[in-house]
Structures are given as C-alpha cells and as structure tokens.
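Troubleshooting entry. Yesterday's outputs looked truncated, so today I'm pasting the complete records for two proteins to confirm everything comes through intact. If either block looks cut off, that's the bug. Protein one:
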Amino acid sequence: MLTPFQVEKPRTRAALMESHPAFLPLSVARMIWKRKLAIGVFAIASCLLTTAAVRRLPSIYVSEALVLIESQKIPEKFVSSTVATDLQDRLAAISQRILSTGRLEQIISAFNLYQSERQTLAPEEVLTLMRKDLSIQMDRGGSGKPGAFRIAYQGKDPRIVAQVANQIAELYIDENSKSREGQAQETSEFLDSQLAEAKGRLDRQEAALSQFKLKFNGELPEQEGALISTLGRLQVELETNRDILNRAQASEAILESNLAAAQAALETPPSITGETTAPVPPAPPRKPSDELQSQLSALSARYGPAHPDVKRVEVELARQKAAEAGQPADVVIPKAAPLPERSTTASSHESPEARDQSRERLATLQAQIIIAEKEIAFRNAEQSRITSEMDQYSARVSHLPLREQALAQVTRDYEISKESYHSLLDKKLAARMASDLEHGQQPERFTLLDP
C-alpha cells in the first residue's frame, strides 16, 4: 500500500512477463518438438488399440426389401373400392399386427435369431432388440401419396438378415390383402343385414298400403272420377224411375176409376121407363201395352237394350200384349168400354152374353190393377234402392279428403322404405363388385419389388 510520501517505481518488460505468463504459438510448437517421440508412440498405440477393438466387434449387415404400392387397376369411376381407410393408417394397423409379440416370437423361433441374447435377457427385452433392428421407411410418390415403403433389418448373418427382411415384407403383403378382403367382406355383410331390414320394412309398408286400399276400396282419391260418374248415373236413373212411378200411379188411378164405373154399371138394374138412357162414354184411355211400350222406348234410349230394366219391361210388354190379344175386340184396356144404350123397347133383363162380357171386363180391369200395383211396388223399391246407393256414394265422396290424407301418409312411408331399399340394393351390388375385385387381385396391392 502506498503512502502519501511513497512513489511507485516503473516496471520493466521482463517483470511484466513474469507477472502475466502466456503460451505463444511458437512456445507450443517448441514444446511439442521437444516431446515428439512420446507423442508419436502414443498415437501409434491408440491406432493399434482402436483397430484391434474394431476387429473384435461382430459384423453387422443390413438388408432392405422394397415394397411397391400398386394402385387399383380398374378405374374407380367404374368400380369403387369399399376400403376407405387411409394408406398410412392401414400401414400403421398392419405394423401393429406384424410387430406384435406373437408374430415376432414366431419369426425369432423360425430363424433362430438372438441366440446368445435369449440366454441372458428376458423375452420382452429380446423383442425390444428386434424392434430396434427393424425399420420401415415410406417413399413418397406423385402428389404426395406413398408410392412404396422399405423394410430394413440388420443382423450378424447376411443370409438370415435377407430372409428376415423378405419374410416381413411378405407378411405386410399378406396382411394388406387380408385386411382389404376383410373390410370388403364386413361391408358386404353389413349391407346384407341392412338390406334384410329394409326389405322387411318395405314388405310391411307394402302390406299396409294394400290393406288400406282393400279396406277403403271405393273411397280412394283415384276413384273420385268414378264416384262422381256413378252419382250422375244414379241421379238419371232416379229421375227415370220417378217418371215411370208417376205414370204407373196415374194408370192405377184410371184403372180403379174404370173398375168402379164397370161395377156400378153391372149392378144397376135396367130402366123401366120409356125414355132412352144413353150414358156418356168415357174418353178412350191408352192400353197398358201402350204405357209399357213408352217405358221401353225411354229406357232403351237411356240405358241400351242390355239393361236389366229394359229386359224386364220387354217381358212385361210381351205378357201384356198376349193378355190383350185374348180379349174381345170391343174391350178397351185399362178403361171399361162404353155401356150400351138402353131403350124402352129393350127387355127388362140384360142378355147373358152382355153380362158375361161385363164380368170379363171387370176381371181384366182387376188384373190390370194388380199389374199396376206390382209395378208401383217395384218402382218404390227401386226408388229406395237408388236413393240408398246415392247416399252411400255421397258419403264416399265426402270421405275422400280424409282417405286422401291417410293414404298420403301410408304412401309416403312406403315410398321412403322403397327408396331406402333400392339405395341399399345398389350399394350391395357395388360392394359385391368391390369384393370380387379384392378377390381377383386387381385392387390396390403391395408388390415385393426389390427383395
């Protein structure tokens, strides 16, 4: 420590070098030159020891198997593959199966690998060694897709190493084929089950649709035109039947009036006075055959000659004409003929022939009244039948909106089931073609290119 009265002496160069020593390049070279013999001996000994150590190490051989990934030969626009798994994912799954404990143990036993290691190491450690000696490397193809992959294995025996690499490559090829065929088979089986379910649903919907149409036959929307046409026909038939009924009732009234007049004339005693009595004859009425002929003409013009009513009126007309043909010429049907004039010169009693004619006329009128009553009864029954049918058809027409709504729901379910069935059927056919493609060795596959 310097005091205020002390002055520091300047140091020389030698003193500075002694206080701060340094290794200059020249000094290092001088030092190596002085010890060159020892350094040379050490280097030669190190080389000899390294060479000896390397010679004592076992030889390690590496074998590679190049597996080419071939694309599907048939274009996918014609036959689509059912294997949609990505190639790298499929390779990862195949690697998991091949590098499993069971597979590797089979390979180790088949080629008698790791003989010394199996004596000292546990089985899991031996499997770990093999997994380290085995490597898989992907080679990218066009558009970034894998074009091939290499399987490399290293070991001490070159022949065994090559066999192991080829064996593992064959395992990859077999596993890929099995995987693709398995996926195609699973897809086909799944579609089979779905198709069976869809077929069952379609059958049930079809049966429901058929049952609905059978249950509500005559009330379906597509029958609306027929229903309206039938209602129109029944309306015309009702009007025609009403006209015939009115004429029959009028004819019956005339016949009953004529019958009453004939009975009164038959029961009235002859006049005893000298005055001539001449009853006013009634207007000549139409015969029943004329009425039936008019009905026949109207029905034939409306319904045609094959209609049941036309046939029935023809039979009645023929019967009536036959009945009228058997009557005397002066008898007029359905009204009684004019009564003969009575004079004071006539006898006090009618002749037997006149009374017989009066009785026959009464019988004819009574028969005609019976026919008219039957006609009226038949026409009343027809009136009720036609009215009932019109009510039924009107009710069917009124039910059309409800039936249309219900039918639309049943039909919609049926169409959905039908569309689903046909879609699954198309997919099933496509899956069958894809399965045939897989079995035919024409799909995407692995090929051992460089064993």
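Protein two, checking that the full record survives here as well:
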Amino acid sequence: MFSDIANFQYIVFSSEPKDVVYLLNEIFTKFDRLVVQHSVYKVETVGDSYMTVGGVPEEKPDHCETICYVAVGMLWEARSVSDPITGQPLQVRIGIHSGPVVAGVVGNKMPRYCLFGDSVNTASRMQSHGTPGRIHCSKAAFQCAQKTGRFEFICRGQIQVKGKGLMETYFLKSSQKKSLWEIVGIERDAKVNSIDGYEELNAGIEENVEITRTNAPNSRMCTVC
C-alpha cells in the first residue's frame, strides 16, 4: 500500500520549511500508530509517500483485510491534520494491490528491508492514479480483501494505467465488520450523526469521479463483500 498527500508540492512551494517538517511529522506519527495497532509493516517514507505492507515478512491470511483497515484509518487521521496554507483538513491518496513480492535486507552501512517486484509497482500505480480522499484498489486487492473481510467497494471500471494498460479498479468505501472508531481505536464522538463513522469519513468526497470504461457494467456499485 502507498499513500501520499494531495497537493503536497504546492504546500512545499508555499510553506516555510519548518511547517512542512511539522506537517509530515504530525501525519506520519498518526500513521505509525495505525501500523502498530494493526500489526502491519512500515517499509519506508520518501517525501510525502508512505509505504506499508501486510503479510510480509510473516504470511497472514487476512493481510489484505488488515491493510484495508489501515487505509481507512489513514483517511480519517489525515483529516485531523491541517493544510498550513488553507487551514483545511488534509486529504491523502491511497493505493492498494495484492500479489507476490521479493523481499530482503539490502545494504551494509544502513541496511534496509526492501520489497521488489511488479506488485510493488502496481500498488504505486494505484496510488498515483487514485483521487484525493479515496482508497484505490486493484482487482487483485478487491478479491483478496473479500476472502476474510466484508467491505463495500465502488467499482471504478476499467482505467488506463501507466505501464500496465487497462485495469479494472475499485474504490474502498467502508468495512461491514468494523466501525471507523474500532479501526482507528478511539471512542465514538457523540456529536457525529452516524453510528459507524463512515458517513463522516466520506463526507465531501466527490461522488462523480471521472471514470473511463471499456466494456464495463453501467453500475458503479459492487456487491458488499
């Protein structure tokens, strides 16, 4: 899974360096807490990009379900951080793919646990071809998440993905097993309207996403998995 901050280059261009550092530290600290809470592995951060993985180095049958929970938590936690330019809550783009990888410790002076392979590239493409405030999933991630989890997805249809061609992709909307509050690990705010928190999570997100389809069904809603 990859995530980045929407409009980050504009924030860097328009902000004081110390404000950018404070922003990244604040949001990554919140992401780190989710990583620990859900027992996934943080691979690296580069600029505003944050990479995590489930099922590595130890295999887990529910790795994709767990990564989906972390992604949902990231969307919510990002909103508690303010854009230093506009003062508005931050939005992140998140991309998820599931597949085989090659992993190992690389380097001597500063060894790092690295992941390689087409699956890593595909996850990165899901993030870069996604939209702010949404979790963009490949078909493989969509299918894998169904094995152990119950999620509601919006089918985006087929889109042209750089270096991959046409791919059928999905937006993850909510979990049917866990509330947002359970995922984030906080008490439900009595001021919110919904019980599970997903109404608030999806509030303000543009529903009319530009969708490119080739022989795709007319309906965007997928069955609850």
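Both blocks look complete. Sanity check on protein two: Residues 206-225 have pLDDT under 50 and may be disordered.
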